[in-house]
Amino acid sequence: MITARAAATFEPVGRSVATARAFVRDTLQGWGCADIVDDAVVLTSELVTNAVVHAGTAADVLCLRNDAGVRVSVADRYPEREIPLQNAGQIVVHPDREGGRGLLLCGALAARWGVEYTAAQKHVWFQLDLPERPAGTRSAGPALPVDALPVAETRVRVAVIQIDRGGCISFWNEDAQDLFAYDPEQVIGKPLTDFAAWPHTPGTGTGIVEALQLSRWEGSYGIRGADGRVVPVYASHLRVRDADGEASTVCLLVRDHERAILQSPQRTPAPDSATQAAQAEGRPSDPFEVFIGSPAPDDLDGLLQRTVERARDMLDGDAAYLLLATDDETELEVRASTGLPSARQRFARVPVEAGSGRYGSARMPAVHEDLTAVPGAVPLLSGTGMRSVVTVPLKVEGRLTGSLGVAAEGAGRYTNEEALRLQFAADRIALAVERARLTELEKLRRGSLSFLVEASDLLAGTLDRDQTLALMAQMTVPTLATWCAVYTVADQTSEPELSYVLHEDEDRIDGLKTLLMKVDPPEPVPTPGARVWSAPSDAAHDAALRTSMRSLGLGNSARPSTGPGATLATASAVGGETVVLPLVARNRVIGMLTLGKPTEEHFRQEILELAEDLSRRAALALDNARLYSERTAISQSLQRSLLPPELPDITGVEVEVIYRAAGEGNEVGGDFYDLFPIRDGAYGFAIGDVCGTGPEAAAVTGLARHALRLLAREGFGGPAVLERLNTAILDEGARSRFLTLLYGELWPQDDGSALLKVVCAGHPLPLRLRQDGSVEPAAEPQPLLGVMDDLELYEQTVTLDPGDVLLCVTDGVTERREGTRMLGDDGLTDVLTSCTGLTAGAVAARVLRAVERFAAEPASDDMAILAMRVPELQAG
Fold first, then answer.
1. Is the pTM of this model over 0.85?
2. pLDDT (0 to 100) of residue 204
3. CA gyration radius for the chain?
4. Domain 288-352+359-435 coded CATH 1.10.10.10
5. How far is CA 592 from CA 485, 513, 577, 604, in A?
6. Is residue 96 scored above 80 in pLDDT?
7. How many CA atoms lie within 13 A of 828 on its CB side?
8. DSSP readout, 191-209?
9. Where are the domains of the chain?
10. Are 557 and 509 in contact (CB under 8 A)?
11. Is the CATH number 3.60.40.10 carried by domain 644-870?
12. Distance of alpha carbon 291 from its chain centroid, rounded?
């Protein structure tokens, strides 16, 4: 059942992808679905990219919440552009192609997904299920002795009263009737003000009418009962809207001494008597509150921003800034500013000890009367127009935790007196800032652990190299960086190759990729940790400068390959800090993860540490994907060598072979077939099944196929060929596997028939279909190979008349199961009976179709089907 719905349409421009990501993220977080937000954003990003970038149409995004999870649908308006074709269960996407990865990611991440077509649109949808987990705890209290618990009546009554938008009572429950002795018909339709005894507190203007209009209210008042006495109650009001959009207020009331039932826990300790007395006398109760104001911001960024604004106002400055110390206290990081380009300077770092003496140390208050006299004394203010500045340290228990500064455009604005005032304020807020910083750091570390766990799950969920590269980039942008580039190194002698590029603004990807292709890749250094790489930023600035000069006619007259706007935008996109992290797996550098920020932005140390942890996991996942790809390629190459390269054309006989190996990534299993010329006019054919699977079975398969050809061409007859093959299998000792084999020799005849001599060693019997529709076995069963030393085999002669068919299969056909049912020899005979008049290819196809339809589950055993038919003689 659908419980929530959100929809939006995005124009066919690159920036719509980022907007769509934000829309889905905000929607799901608003629905409380934080567990699946990241997966939903990754999938939406790829699908919207396919629509607005590759298809060039608007994208309609629809989010539906249901009991199990969230379903997201992305529709474009160009449905005939591409229909995904299923080929052996795989969707093939060229590694260099930007589009099409969305379906691969849906298959990897979504619980369910699909593609739906209408006359005007194509819908790609995916379903993400919410994990089953117990509800979170909003608040909890310690265990208390019984005598310390709040007092309540034997039966606790909670009155539920609903008030319509006019302030009149529309619902009155049984507990309200018991508490206040009014029957529902006595109160419904009457204003609540007729019954409420609202306290008139001096200095407050909030009455009961105003309280009922608030979205949420909690407090004490009284209700006059039927006997005229006022019952003190504690109430919780909540403003709601019904299905028709009408607003009303739901009131929950208990007796005032039972308020613990409804009362929300206080977020801060109640003030003591001294604080209450100070407030009653109008005196400030807390220096921190005096400086920051009340209420204090709950989050660190809000607290720091309020701090710099108050400091600027207190000293009548033009700008202010606050820096926090890193964990090792060797650097200070810009965290808040006002009057300065904060977005450009955020997270920039300066050393703690820039020089000797008071004015060069962040550990001491300092006053600079004129910065023009000492250029570079405060690097943060360079180029801002500020001339005088006062800075003071933030310290907790003697340890430097930050620095607070106020600056002015005029010279000589500040003295030691202002430094003392600012230091007094800094002392008041230092502890609160440190507490908020530690809280933020703890949240960040918890978030980092959750991020790394989810990243590990995603990376472990695929062994495809291209998908692993895409996931690496999708996880870092925009969570850790504005853009990301992944370089891969094939071996120690190879140059790094740019393999994947992603920017949070899809319009910048092509320009960024072009820029990075022109820059020498970073050196693959195995040293752990992030190192700064300035080449992209320098190249972007140089390209932007050359483009600007050409546009002004100051440089080469040749037209630039891209417009000035595109080049300048690319320079802005990569103009900030760029870092490179090595991807090291099994003591070898297999690539580099490059992260970048836009102009003048810097990375936080915590983000770099998180990126380093991610790079280690990503490197192992990427190397596993490489090893898996190499192993799969080698395995498939060896498997293909066990199959005959091609079937010979036999004059007068139609031949068709269908082969299906069970198992993912298998091209050859324990079954095999062969058809080959022996000498002029004679052909050998074989179909067999080796016991078991894996390398041992493959070894017997190769031995059997090549031995059959060699022995047959040496002139041995069928029984002699199989007897010698049996000896060769037994000579393998513990590695041997028993083998069922149907071997025969075929001679097309001048009269249009075909003569066959067959030996059936433990294999399902070949079936002969005559023109009249009758089916009969074409051989008798004999012992299988690889079990007994002395075999006495014999061959049987069969003549295929024109129009006859000889069908040979492995037991994967006859033993096809659906529960307790099995196709069996009788079922195969029934299928073959219906094939009269069909060509050899049609016969083989009908048998395969019957086997596949017999059971819904995929086949668990290999199948080989060999059909040979003698064509009917042409009249005249």
1. no
2. 40
3. 40
4. no
5. 8, 15, 16, 20
6. no
7. 26
8. BGGGTEE----TT----HH
9. 2-79+98-129, 156-261, 288-352+359-435, 462-549+566-633, 644-870
10. no
11. yes
12. 45
Cα 431–Cα 437–Cα 439 angle in degrees, nearest 5: 105
Written as six digits, the tokens of 847 are 């048998």
Q: Which residues sit opposite 7 in a β-bridge?
A: 62
* Residues 565-583: tens digit of each pLDDT: 455 666 666 767 888 989 8
Q: Where are the alpha helices (DSSP H) in 681-765?
A: 695-713, 718-731
Q: What is the pLDDT of residues 196-208, one digit of tens each?
A: 988 754 434 457 8
Question: Which CATH code fits 2-79+98-129?
Answer: 3.30.565.10
Q: Which of 214, 94, 222, 107 is nearest to 159 (CA)?
A: 222
**What CA–CA distance (Å, rounded) separates 215 from 218?**
11
Return the closest-CA partner of residue 371 out of 383, 358, 354. 383
Confidence band (pLDDT; 50, 70, 90) for 478?
confident
Residue 507 DSSP one-character state: G
- For 156-261, the fitting CATH number among 3.60.15.10, 3.90.550.10, 3.40.50.150, 3.30.450.20 is 3.30.450.20
Residue with tokens 């052996």: 88
What are the pLDDT digits (tens) for 751-775? 889 999 999 999 999 999 998 899 9
- Other C-beta atoms closer than 10 Å to the C-beta of 777 total 15
Contacts of 704 (CB under 8 A, 6+ apart): 672, 686, 688, 690, 725, 729, 739, 741
Of 368, 392, 363, residue with least CA distance to 379: 368
pLDDT digits (tens, 9 = 90+) for 35-44: 788 788 888 8
In 285-319, which positions are buried (b, 16+ CB within 10 angstroms) versus exposed (e)? beebeebbeeebbeebeebbbbbbbbbbeebebbb
How far apart (Å, rounded) are the C-alpha atoms in residues 208 and 200?
Answer: 10
Average pLDDT in the 72-79 region? Answer: 82
* Residue 557: predicted pLDDT: 46
Q: Which residues contact 547 (CB under 8 A, 6 or more apart)?
A: 560, 562, 563, 564, 567, 568
Per-residue tokens: 294: 């009340």
